[in-house]
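User: ok so my PI wants both of these folded by tonight, can you help

Assistant: No problem, let's get them done. Here's the first:
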Amino acid sequence: MWTSRILSSTATRAASASTAMMSRSRSLAQFARQSSSSTSAISYKRTHPHKRHPALSSEYLYPAAPSAEEAVSNILYNTPPGGRGYVQQRHIFNCLVQNEPGVLSRVSGILAGRGFNIDSLVVAKTEVADLSRMTIVLRGDPETIEQARRQVEDLVPVWAVLDYTGFKVIQRELLLIKISILGPEHVRAQIKSRAPGWQIIQDETEEELSPSNALRQTHAHLKSLTELAHLFQGKVVDVSSDCAVVELSAKPDRIDAFIKLVKPFGILEAARSGMMAMPRSPIYDMHDHEELAEDVGSSVDATMLPPG
């Protein structure tokens, strides 16, 4: 009986010892794995030595001034090529006409009869009730333009025709443009959807976006369009779920540049008012007038001197 108890206690001790050894071996293996992962960065650095970048040279920090030949070559390379061929000069007419029906048709009829293509024509009444102001922009030879100006001025309801060509004038034109904010791939479907009896088909779009991606893309396009309009001193006056309307008042050249820049977004429709012009007023300096008066006062008339 005592022998069986001794044997059972011995077996129990052996089992507990084996269990402890197994748990110890597991902990050692786990520690080995932890130690190998923690030292992997060191081993990687030893096997892959860091390549130091070369120090910046003095030529990079203090670049030498370009020579005259290099500067001229750079300017010639960056200068856009000029237009080839003869380009007719643009003329600006400011017509003061009587505010009555039929004046516009008579003025445009004379210009059309001489073969002029009118670039823009703006008519509006002035602060005087019976007077209207007409701004006409056209191109042609100076001699032909002068003949047309005289013929227009000979009309009965025309008070005067002023040619602002060659003068310093303030030019402004108003642009209202509706631009898509969905992307250029959806412009065709947007334009067709505005036609009566048309329904947008999924095949019209190139790819199907999730609602979150479509919303993110729409806001990104709207933000880019707003920043571009701000650079041209324009503003977004209307926003919908698929397009935005931008208002811009600037010179005709800047209007043309803005239209070219927003064309990749997708232009749905645009309206231009035509160019309005007004001559700049000269700036007079009182100091210059005082000097001129002193010179005139100090001068002596030779006819008033005695003979001899």
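One down. Here's the second:
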Amino acid sequence: MPLEVIYVTRHGFRSSWSVDPHTGIYSASIPSPTGIPTDPALTSHGVNQAKQMGHHLMTLDPPIDVVYSSPYYRCLQTIAPFVELKRQQLEKDGASPDSAATSIRPEYGLCEFFGAAPFEHPIPAPPEQLKTFFPAYDDSHVSAFAPSRKGETIQDLYERVAAAIQTIIERCDAEGKRAVVLCTHAAVVIALGRVLTGNIPDSVETQDFHAFTCGLSVYRRRNMQDNTSDLPADSGPSSMGKWECELNSDCSFLSSGAERGWGFSGDESFAGTGSMSQEVTEPKL
């Protein structure tokens, strides 16, 4: 049975960090649980958003069969309430709790987007540390792809997202999963929309796919008669597009509605990489 639906959500409202664009030194006023400035926890409002989203995800049809998430703390924290609700449901129904929907597959291909820089950006905490925070963290999962420590151009981002989603779709097809949920970051939410639909605009700043905190996007496979891989290994992101966007960062299930929308501002690169578009020090993801 091929994959039918891809659910995509952005993490909830989080604490912030800042970066000195000249030195690449990151800092945060609120300590991160992992000790990494760019790996903050959700705020109390973000925690409430994640709980509301978890209940909403339990109502989806087709139901979620498998969970993938960026390994950053805020994304794992966002999807964890759903995974726990799913585990409780299976236990109540007398089914085995060892379902793919009760564990979180950490996918580095869904990681935060950092603009190209002459310095190295931080990376997520190691699996053994994240496992202590999130027991559902599947430390046996092998990621398909990981972004460069020196950041990415927009084309790099599209290619990374395409490689990651290609592998996820192929794995879901092989495992007979009908529906998957991906929890990730704003830039990746937008890139996924463009890659999956094949609608990649000439300007990265085009307002097409939204990325609100805990917003839910839904993509359905256009041709369910085609059981072959949607994303050939030798294709570029512009050749994709076998998925239809049915919901674009829907927030109707959140008590506070749509919040903290985000969009690209140029290529987000830092000085010293051929672009001066990155002048602000506050994060936007």
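DSSP finds five helices and eight strands in the chain. The chain has a mean pLDDT of 89. Good luck tonight!
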